[in-house]
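User
New here, explain this?
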Amino acid sequence: MNSDKKVVVTCAITGLLTDPKKFNVPVTPREMAMATQQAFDAGATIVHTHFRSQQPGLGAWPTWDLKEVGDILGAIRSQVPGMIINMSTGLVGNDISGPAACLEAFKPEMAACNAGSLNYLKIRQDGVWAWPPILFDNPVEKVKRFLDVMSANNIIPEFECFDTGIVRSVAMYQANGMFQGDAHLSFVMGVDSGMPANPSLLAILKDELPPNSHWQVIATGPGREKIWNLHRKCIELGGNVRTGLEDTFYLPNGDKAMDNGQLVDALVKIVRETGREVASPGEARIIMGINK
């Protein structure tokens, strides 16, 4: 099968703040490794990793502690050596020393690079904020500092884009020389104050990509049908795809997913229904330009 028919599948296994006491998200190194194994066995070749504190009672909170992060990544690499690791880096504020130190210490094949700022909002039906409005601040200077660390450590950036203007900004980063090589973009769709999970937007977003870009959809938020229809449209338009308990808890039929493997199974089924096929680990490395 031609390489342009192949779809790279990513699994985001845990997310940033989902409470493990309420939802079946992995937290410990062993849990993270086993969740990665489930995703890999189902057809995912990239694991998107957030890191949770291993301190008692803090499993819902992120950590950049080098030992904790190292233990998690070590467990994943030992359990599933063929899996490509895509490390999360997102954080509010100007101090990137935590994720930067982790990038330098562990040199994952890929890492997320949030490509622009977003007012992170959610409103309740009575007009009250669901949480105090948050600015997820990613000014150009902060983006460049992340890209400099990634470039120095041979890490491919995956640009997470929450709105159309952020998608367009990636081409300007490329023209400015902030990164080298083909661009890898994720359209984050379904955040209430970002791009909606609307399949009709995908053709427009695709037209705004830099030449020779690789792209995928991160579909999140309520509305099971919207999320899975968005994945299907993305595949039909030639994109790659991502799922996992960070993004959704629900399968296409409305059942609650018990683990990450079930979500990847459902996504792989859609890939094949569209006439495409899932990339193997070796094929995914070639497609994504990974040379380590």
Observations:
- The longest helix spans residues 29-42.
- The mean pLDDT is 95.
- The chain is about 35% helix and 15% strand.
